[in-house]
Every structure is written in C-alpha cells, then in structure tokens.
Specification:
heterodimer; A: mainly beta; 7-stranded mixed β-sheet; 5-stranded mixed β-sheet; 26 strands; globular; B: 5-stranded mixed β-sheet; 23 strands; 22% helix
Amino acid sequence: MSGRARRATVTDMNIPDLRTAVHRAFAPAARPGRVGVEIELIPVADGARPEPARLAAVLDPGFAAEARPTFEPGGQLELSPAPRPVAIETSRREASSRYERDLSVTKPAVLARPVNQATVARTRLSRRNAAVLAAAVILSQGVLSLADAATWKPVTAQPRVSWTAPVVPTALHGSGFLANARLGRITEGTVPCVHAETAATARCVFTPGSGSWLESAQGDFARVAQPISLDGRPGGEYVVASEVSAEGTVPAVAPTGHDAEGVPAGNELAQACVVETMTSSTNVTGQRLVNYATREVPTSSYPHPDDAHLMREYWDGTHWIYYYSGEGAALNDVNGTERDAAGVYLPGSAHCHVVWSNGYEVSGAKRPNTKAWPAPGVVVPWTAIVWRPVNPDVAIGN
Amino acid sequence: MTGLSRLSAVVLLLATLAACDSGTAGTDRAWRTPPVEPAESLIAQRLPRTTYLGGPFLRHPQVVTVTFAGDAPGLVDRLEQFGATITHSTWWRAAVDQFCRTADDCVGDGVPAQPVRLSAAAPTAIRDVDVADLLRREAEVGRLGDLGLDSLLLVYLPAGTALTEVTVGVYCDGRARALHRSLLIGSQPMPYAVVPRCGEEAELTATASHEILEATTNPDPSRRGFAFESGGAGAGFTAAGVEPVDPCGLVTLDRHRTVADGFTVQRPWSDRAAAGGHNPCGPTDIPYLALVPERAALQLDVGQTANIALTAAADRPVAPWPVRAVDVTGLRSSTPCADVALDRTAVAAGETATLTITARAQPPSGRCVVGTLSGSAPDDTLWPLALTVEVHR
C-alpha cells in the first residue's frame, strides 16, 4: 500500500466515512474522483498458515486479471481491483459474491467456521491511507473457498476500549484516588510499570514510600501514572501501569453513590477509555484531539496532527521547531483525559486515552519526546507529537 | 457515522449487553406522561440533562428493607412501610419520568418485597465493605429472601452504629449521609444502599429516597445507567455527583425535601422541568429565578481574578429579585476557595450583572464550586460555576 497521505484513519466500511476520509487525506480533485480499495484476506487453516503458492494455484485466471491478487510478506492475500467511482459497498458486495464465486473454483465443499474477529483485528494489516477489509479464507484439506458471506468479518477496527474493573478501597495512602482512577496491582512488592519514553515494560519495586497506594479486599494497588524508578524511588523514568486482564479491563477505584448533602466532591473519571496506538500521530476515534493546552508545545511536527494553532516557529541551527498552543496542541494528563479551556475534564470515553504495551496499560499522552535531564525532565523539541505514555514529571500542554 | 459516534455506539452496545443482565428488559409503564415540550429560554438552554450512559438499571425495583435487631420497632415499621410503598407513589412516577432507555424500556413502578429484620445486633462501627460482606453472607444462607434481578437491598443502621468509608470517613454530621454500590452474590450483581442513623424518620426517609432512586438508575456505579456526564458544560451542576438527585443538593443548598404519601423525600432533578426552563429541583408553582453565567466553568491560578458576565432570567414575569455571590466550597468546608462578589444586589429578568472571582486556594480536588444565589431563602437557588484552581508552576 502506498503511504502518501498523512491522516486517513478509515476504520469502518461505509461510504460516508470513506468519502470523508478520502476528502480529508487527499487534495480536492478537479474532476469526479475514484476510490481504490485493497482487500486483504487472511488465510486461515486448521494447521499451519497456508502457503501463498498453494493459494495462488487455485485462482481463476479471469478473477486474477480483475482482482490482481498478490501476497503480502506476511502471507495475506491482497486483492487490488481497479479504482472505481463507487467504493466500498460495491467492492464488498463483489467480495462476498463474485470473489467468492471465483475463489470457490475448487471442489469439494469446505469446512467453514466463523472468524474470530478479535484475532482478525489483532492481525490488522495497515492503518494508512486506505480502507482495509479483511476476511477469512477458509482452507481445509487443500481446498480454498470463502464459504459464504456469513463467514466474512470485516475488520471494523472499532476503537478498542479499556473498561474499569472496580476495586473498593479499605484504606487510602496518598492522593489522587478519584472515582475510576486506574490502578496497578502490587504483587510481591512490585507493580507493573512502563518506561515513559520507550514504553518498555517492567516490574518496578513499590514500597509505601514509592507513591500513592490503597488497600482493598482484593489486595494492594498503586495509582497509575505515578513516576517511579525500577528500584521504587518516586520520580523515575517509568510510570506505574495496570495489567490488562484477558477481558480487556484494568482495576480502578470503585465509584460510590452518595447522598452528599450537595457538598462538592472530586471528578469522576471515565469508566471506559479508548486505547490509542503507540507512536501514532492519529487518534483511533478518527476525531481531533481537543485538549486545551495552556502552554506552548514545541515539536518537529508540521503541520500539526490535530490542526492545533501554530504560535511561532524557530530554526535552532539544526531543526525547525514549531510551537503550538490551545485546542489540540498536546495532551499529557495523569488520567489521560482531555480538558476544555476552563480546565474541566471533557466527558465521555472518546476524551479519555490509554496506551497498551505488552499487556500493560498506562494513561495515554499525545506529546513530543522528553529527556530526564535536567531534572525533572524537559521536552525534546525536535521530536514529533505522537501517542506515548504519560510523563507526569514534565509539564506539556497544561 | 463519525468515529466519535461509532465509539459511543460501541460503548453503548457493550454496556447495553451488560444492562440486559440487570432488571427485566422490555417492560412498559403502568402510566403515561405527556411528551416533553422544550422551551427556548436561556434557562432551558443552559441547564444540563441526564442521559442514558449504557449501564444497567432496575425496571421494577424491589426494595428489601433490612434492619438490625434492637432497632426501635415503631421506626422500623415505618421504614418498612416506606420501602414497600415509595416506588409506586406519585413522587416516584414524577421522579422516574425521564428514565427510559427506549420508549418501552423504562423505569416503572416498584414491586413490594419482604422486609428483613436481622437477628443480630449491629456493631458500634461498621465499614462499607463490612456491610457488603454481611449482606453477602446473609443472602447466601437465604436470610434475605428471594432476591431477583430488580432487588435492591436497603440497609438501615441503628442508632449508635457509625458508618465509615475511606473516601468519606465517618458518615453524618455534615458529611455524606448514605451510600450505594453493587456487590456480587454468587455471580449475581446486587445493588445495595446503606443509610446510617444521621437523624430521625424524616432524615432517614429523605436520604433513603435519594438512594433508592439513584440505585435504581445506577445499580452499579461502575457502569452508569441514567446520569449526568461528568465534567463538560454541566461541570458546576455535577460537582456534588453525577447521579440524578445529586445536583439538587447543590442547587437548593440541600433544601430539596418534600412530602410524598406521608413520608419525607428528596426532590430529584427533573429533565422535564429543565427542558421547560423551570426549576429542575423544585416545585414549579414558585418562580424559578437565575443568574445565568456566560460560561459553565473557568480556570484561575491562585491570586488571579476573572469577571464573569451573567444574565438574569426567570420562568415567568416577576418583580426584581435579590441576588448574591457565594463560594460554595468555602461555605461547606470552611476553607475559602475564592473571593466572590456581585456588582448588583437585585436584578430583573433580562438585566446583566458581573461576578468577580479571585482564586484564593487550591482545594485537594483542584476544583471548587462558586456561584450566585437568586431569590430569598428558603426558596433561593444556586446557579453553580465550576472553578479549577491551579498553582502556577
């Protein structure tokens, strides 16, 4: 796939989305445009992954001429029909009818089984510049077929969402325990932790002096996004993280309903947050970041991935540095949550961001790189604004 | 469909699947309410509304009143009567008017349940988690009766038993008066509420009405059902909580009680009244007066000052009314958050005023509530503003 366009984030297969994404990604055409669609098929077999050569051998020449099948380095079968004015619905229908027919050239009947959508989603093939429709090719005993349309499972790539699993605290030590604040389980004196820049995962020593933590019937937990060192000193290059369960949940402070006599209390954080893609400059929701940055954010990113307001630019002798501020300039919040211009957290899961790394989760930040020295850390201005773990030691944006 | 709305749809779908595990889906109501007729007034435009956030809710709540041995028999009788009747009172029908997931999937009348008088006396102090453990043990041996998908355990602690919880400390005496959560009995989520003895019958039933309504609409606070979205344009109103009665404690300065079928209850937030530009927490036979700020929230560094423009509005023609500014956080905590002043002492509908705010101290949560009171006590009402206080680094 080509990688010319910068921000196309088509994640679903319907015409309005595709049209919007294409218009956003490409300069307006002087004449009616066409849309090319690549269809990637994941060969699935009961045993080892099918060899491309075996798949190629069963393709009909007429089908091959129109669909232009090729094989990706990973073994995916890619169909690249010519661009056409009407995009995905036609192609999808073709994929589930004509391609099925054409691919089903061999006999006898095949063993069809539903596709595990989660597996397919994890095997996402490309995020850039094109809609990707993945389906399953059911291969059994050397026979290739798409079976029937019911076995087609498009990679809708709906934004992954991380939910909270409530933990009722019995004792609090420290601060920042807002309702739904995410937690890392303390096990044998260590907590999950993630390097704030590299996202390398580790277990950091956690002692009562390492930061804020709580006791519960389910065990002891530390508040996520606290800076910590591998040996448990506060303020290190790592941040406390959560371990993501098999169900995609992370422990969090259980919210409680109160009759509070109208006494103002703290914020209640989002119960679900979107899982952003590490080092990506785009957002999985397809929406712009709107966190209101009250500070200037220096970066090499130009134009800004979220169309933030450019305040000024500066040549340092080696790099151009661009300074952004205001709406969407950056996000580096310990709760991964965007704020409006009044500093109020924005409601809804789409404004709460986390990143995952090797099964660990930490608050997501969209920011340039930082370095630890001089303490407590500074922005590296000639780096791009992308999704990274939060770095609570450095004020970026707010 | 935008990415954002797709995400909302996914979250809603997932939560709706969870919702199917609680309550009786697809139930209809035994009564009909007229459609909401939104007004175009400034008040109607600026008051927040509750929304369905995808979590479970109870369709026909069955309030299981739980009391301890040794409690005052006459009071226990009244509390049991309250639990058996309040969820099909006229108050209840007005209170749940807005809580429909779909046209035929709403919160309806409750169903009476057998009360439980525990044979054991309560200890002198008990933690929230201990109450949950106690209920779990009693349920597992069958002493709480037949519990179903719409059951709600409502526990009244007797006099002399203090309720404690880590985020509140000891309940009563100016702190929170009750809590509700969800516990697991086997694999079945079960909402429960705990009402400590902060006062006499009126205090108890008022607080219990708050908990019954909020546990019905949000039986699992970790998966919100009908609630306000936290933050955003409603940040001031939701500063005391996002569940449907919480903002009224703030707006009325905790004077939102009324009487229903002989019991004292709290008036909850009414989306219908809000949509009509009326007092969302009060009787609509009293004029609703407000000083509506140009924005719902602001952020100041300690020592910084801001002026906020306000517009006076009322839901009917009225004479000029008194107004004053208030630091609600400071009023409640005795630690001032901000200096607040109004340039007017009385306003008429359509007039403007200016609220001057100077941030004085950052509270532990980083957020304060300030605002303006319109009208004369005890019917004056607060229009709150969320104030984020920063300590400039």
